Amino acid sequence: MSRSSQTRSKLRSATTVALAAAAAGSLLAATAASSSAAASQNTGASRTKPTVVLVHGAFADASSWSGVIKRLQHDGYPVVAAANPLRGVSSDAAYLRSVLDGVHGPVVLVGHSYGGSVITQAAAGDPDVKALVYIAAFIPNVGESAGELAAKFPGSTLGETLNSSSYPLPGGGTGTELTIKQDLFHHQFAADVPAPTAAIMAATQRPVSTLALEEKASKAAWKDIPSYALTAGQDYNIPPKAEQWMAERAHARTVTIANASHAVAVSHPAAVADLILRAARETR
């Protein structure tokens, strides 16, 4: 092969390598750009979803939201299930506000039972709370307590199922806290929940201070924040008529499950999650 032929061959080889490298570089750049765009889209999508903060009530704990949490997380919503101290409306609300301070972006705040009293006070004046969702819950106005709202209509059989015990108060002295007798828990609190599950709930229930049920609300966030409510037609803790009356007064968008017990988040997690998702979509 002549020297000129060798030179041309080398030039063709060099050109081929350069073109291949350029093509590979372009492909890598395009892939990186595509990945970056996808990540940006995913991040943007997640930012459009509010964080759902769940607050349990008396005689329960955060695990009562387990079935609801699974459904919310499946739909891509960040979730925080707060541990409600159950010591008093003002102190419990102050604790919940500290939880909310650690959440960035919009919030859908959900309360069950006495947890409704807590979210009503904690959300007042918080611009990040976009919706309140009450699940078989108290929706107090200023000056009202959970105890008096439960007694407003007939139907609650809670009082005859309770045990009371003393506990030390931080500043000295003793307070009184309440639990539901374990052998009565299934019928009273969770009649539509399978018996083995109700037995676990009875064993793990958290006591509520009588102070929490007697303390009057000092704020009513539902007056300024869109509200949603689920009422339970077979609730023996809070009379269904009381739940309906409070929901109507708060102008809450309301659904009712006629055969649901007080433990509706355990027995009907899909319906509870659906209402929370509705609140999240409608109040973005």
What does this structure look like?
By secondary structure, the protein is α/β, with parallel strands linked by helices. The protein is built from eleven helices and nine strands. It has helices spanning 3-48, 66-74, 89-101, 115-122, 146-150, 182-189, 195-204, 210-214, 240-249, 264-267, 269-282; strands spanning 51-55, 79-82, 107-113, 129-137, 162-168, 174-180, 208-209, 227-232, 253-257. The strands form two sheets. The protein has a six-stranded parallel sheet, sandwiched between helices. A three-stranded antiparallel sheet has the order 5-6-7. Strand 8, helix 9 and strand 9 (253-257) form a beta-alpha-beta unit. Mean pLDDT is 88; it is low at 1-46.
Short descriptors:
9 strands, 3-stranded antiparallel sheet, alpha/beta, 11 helices, 6-stranded parallel sheet, disordered N terminus, 284 residues, 18% strand
Computed Rg = 28 Å
Largest sheet: 6 strands, parallel
Number of contiguous helices: 11
Unreliable segments of 5+ consecutive residues:
1-46
Average pLDDT, all residues: 88
Strand content: 15-25%
Shape: globular
Number of strands: 9
Helix-strand string: HEHEHEHEHEEHHEHEHEHH
Q: What kind of oligomer do you see? A: single chain
The strand line-up of the biggest sheet is 2-1-3-4-8-9
How far the N terminus sits from the C terminus, by CA atoms, comes to 75 Å
Helix content: 40-55%
Task: Report the structural category.
Answer: alpha/beta
